[in-house]
Amino acid sequence: MTENNPSIQSFDRVLSPNARALVARADGGKWRFLVTSDRLSIAVITQKGTLGAFPTKQRYISPNGSIELQGRGSVEIHVTNLDAGNSAQVRTWDAGYLCGGLEPVQFTENGLTTPAAAAFGPLGSFGGYPAPFCNHCRLYIDGAAQSRIRATAPNGLTVFQSGAQPVDERLYIDLDTPQGYKFEIRESASGAGINYGVIWYRG
């Protein structure tokens, strides 16, 4: 446990499969927490006012991913390990409130290649998940090649699958890429794969 003052606390936890635990709390004031997990997890944020608790907010955390939460007032943050077969290492840090709001986050990857023979492969180098703290990406594909993209929700269902993208008509493709969702990419026609780059960022 780390404790910066009597009213704000953060906790490191080891969560069994499907287990839930309190990872951060504040009695009031301004707070900012960084939460990371090595397994697919979900954070539930509960805030309370003088009239009682507000509806909860939820944020997925990708495997080996991180999220940043900031606010003020009484709050409790619980994390549930969504991995049914492995324990999760969850770390939480009281990072100190930023008066100007959360800072921009960007992570750039270049020189990536899709699998050959039009097979789907993970988008980027984080196993198909967004870079830590990021929830959007901008995709650049070399040679105006056409591609297909699909997204899988945390429950394993395919929630998005694009047709061929006319990259020769658009210099890039912007995607919403929430934490916890897995994204895959392939070439439209069977070949040796296509080269691409991606910029992950927080929008």
Task: Please report the number of helical segments.
Answer: 0
Low-confidence stretches: none
Helical content, roughly?
A: under 10%
* Terminal residue distance: 31 Å
Q: Indicate the structural class.
A: mainly beta
Question: What is the global morphology?
Answer: elongated
Question: Overview of this structure, please?
Answer:
The structure is a single chain. With 203 residues, the chain is an all-beta fold. The chain has no helices and 19 strands. Strands 1, 2, 4, 6, 7, 8 and 10 form a 7-stranded antiparallel β-sheet that branches. The chain has a 4-stranded antiparallel β-sheet with strand order 3-11-5-9, with no helix packed on it. The chain has a 4-stranded antiparallel β-sheet with strand order 12-19-14-17, with no helix packed on it. The chain is elongated and about 60 Å long. The protein starts with a strand and ends with a strand. The model has no long low-confidence stretch (mean pLDDT 91).
Quick gist of this model?
With 203 residues, this protein is mainly β. The protein has strands spanning 2-5, 8-10, 13-15, 20-26, 30-37, 41-49, 52-53, 57-61, 65-72, 74-81, 88-94, 106-113, 121-122, 136-141, 147-152, 158-161, 173-176, 182-187, 195-201. Strands 1, 2, 4, 6, 7, 8 and 10 form a seven-stranded antiparallel beta sheet that branches.
